[in-house]
Amino acid sequence: VPIEQIRNFSIIAHIDHGKSTLADRLLEYTGAIKHNSGQHQVLDKLQVEKERGITVKAQSASIVYNYNGKPYILNLIDTPGHVDFSSEVSRSLSVCQGVILLVDANDGVQAQTVANFYLAFGKDLKIIPVLNKIDLKQANPDKVCEQLRTLFDIEPDEVLRISAKHGIGIKEVFEKIIKELPHPEVDRTGPFQALIYDSWFDKYRGALSLIYVNSGSAKIGDSISSCHTKKFYEVKTISVLRPEEENVKKIVAGQIGLVGCNVRNIKEAIIGDTLHLTSTPVSPLPGFTPPKSMVFAGIYPSTLSEYTDLRKAIEKLTLNDSAVSVDMDTSPALGQGWRLGFLGLLHLEVFSQRLQQEYGTEPIITAPSVTYLIKLKSTKETEKKGTNELYINNPINFPQSFNITETYEPMILGTIITPDTYLGAIVQLCQERRGVQVQALNIDNDRIMLQYQLPLCEVVLDFHDSLKSLSSGYCSFDYEDYGYQLSNLVKLNILLNSVPCEELSTIVHVSRAQLVGRQMVLKLKDLIPRQMIHIAIQASVNGKILARENIQPYRKDVTAKLYGGDVTRRMKLLAQQSAGKKKMKMIANISVPRNTFIDFLKK
Ligand code: GTP
């Protein structure tokens, strides 16, 4: 079709506001899928997504809609809706000319609505505001229109009112897309130039790249090259997603399609890379900033025999999720493992859930940590390295305090939207987490939007859960990266009978050291079994003891429960007890079972 009959758009919405339902309805309306064909929410492909009801990996569909006797191709680019995935949203939006801003008419504007609006607004995209779920009795579209006006300067008469579930207003959505969104500005006669905006691995066809063609065209058999790696490939397959794959021979500017070149290594299908015909080089399209790991966790097999399975599972999963960074790691207590980096906590949770569901592994996952920046005093060593900056996400690598000049921690800008009844409790929580208020705005007569600058480490643990529980689930939260900030960080050591136990150490803000030290010592007191010797558990910072607990000695007599007599049974039990001891790690003559570490590190 002519370029004037193409529209590329995304639906952006807060979680559960009905994005997948609307996408299904759009596909159904044009006959791309059958009504109630059991293909509900066809764009959410992964099992975890289904279970959690969240979209993780962006999927796309090309919809054909006839309007005024002409066929239009509407390319719907699916975007993930959750806080952790804003880099994926941003990536998807860069191939769109407009978005549908979908808002639940009962729930109103929520934190991700705000975050997603600004992502689209920042990219200069045309925004079509749509209220969903107007069929609900509690729906209050007028009030939500008021919120849209206050926050985004959107006039109520621009806002569509629909019910995705009941198919009300769907035709109007199509017409607005066609009338209001600009068509892509491309040059079909120019040299082939395409952007890879997603990629995944297919068992049979190798790496598949989802591309947006910015100029020219490519067909099966062409030799195409990557601007980034300079490697070249023969195009083997091209398909469009309707949403089922439909093979085509050629793809032209303005279109979106899936290209396969029989590449066995997914790392060669780089998201953000530009493709061109090998014979006609072009300059690269503005790429994307690569996804940045914000949250790290150690992953270890729960038994040694699971190591190989776990390694394979991690390799397979990271094949399709280039946002996960992988490093080897060893822990004296937990053995050989990995330190993985994630976009955020939800990303970590989704990943570990997939490890379990899809690969049947039950790994030990340590409490998440963030990356700190440490500036060191100049020494011969820093001169040799050419930098005195050190980024660490593992407390084991925290330098001695006398080598440090400054410490910095990663910050976020958090957006919270809440009914005003919970305001007091939320402000208190943010203050406890060392937050600094940036903005407080009434968005209607009983709802408030708060923005806080918060340390990421205070958010990764349970901030979101705490917010939800103190607001009975009525408040929403989203965050964006806010750079590093000078902060007084220290390493909190745990000592068992005066011997430091590295894998139990953590990095904390100096104001939290006392409290966290106290909590850790108490927890360990519960977890470490009594032994034949006295045990002192201490928490210390820079050699100063902040907290201490004792475990009194106790003779564990495994034979006590037997009434005398049987010598062989007695011997057998004693042998069992000594074998059990081998599984323990000895620290200063104290045997700490592996399970203690596991329970402690898991949180
Ligand atoms: P994520 O993919 O997790 O971001 O969620 P989503 O925005 O795709 O939401 P989804 O389409 O899964 O819808 C969430 C819930 O709202 C589902 O239970 C839908 O059935 C329901 N829902 C969607 N649209 C409507 C509507 O128009 N009216 C009513 N009453 N319910 C709706």
Automatic annotation (TrEMBL):
It comes from the Eukaryota. GO terms for molecular function: GTP binding; GTPase activity; mitochondrial ribosome binding. GO terms for biological process: positive regulation of translation; translation. This is Translation factor GUF1 homolog, mitochondrial. Belongs to the GTP-binding elongation factor family. LepA subfamily. It is a peripheral membrane protein. Keywords: GTP-binding, Hydrolase, Membrane, Mitochondrion, Mitochondrion inner membrane, Nucleotide-binding, Protein biosynthesis. It comes from Henosepilachna vigintioctopunctata. Promotes mitochondrial protein synthesis. May act as a fidelity factor of the translation reaction, by catalyzing a one-codon backward translocation of tRNAs on improperly translocated ribosomes. Binds to mitochondrial ribosomes in a GTP-dependent manner. The keyword Cell cycle does not apply. Its EC number is 3.6.5.n1. It catalyses: GTP + H2O = GDP + phosphate + H(+). The keyword Nucleotide-binding applies. It is found in: Mitochondrion inner membrane. It is an enzyme of class 3 (hydrolase). One of its GO terms (cellular component) is mitochondrial inner membrane. Residues 4-185 form the Tr-type G domain. Pfam families: EFG_C (PF00679), GTP_EFTU (PF00009), LepA_C (PF06421). PANTHER family: TRANSLATION FACTOR GUF1, MITOCHONDRIAL, TRANSLATION FACTOR GUF1-RELATED. GTP binds at residues 13-20, 78-82, 132-135.
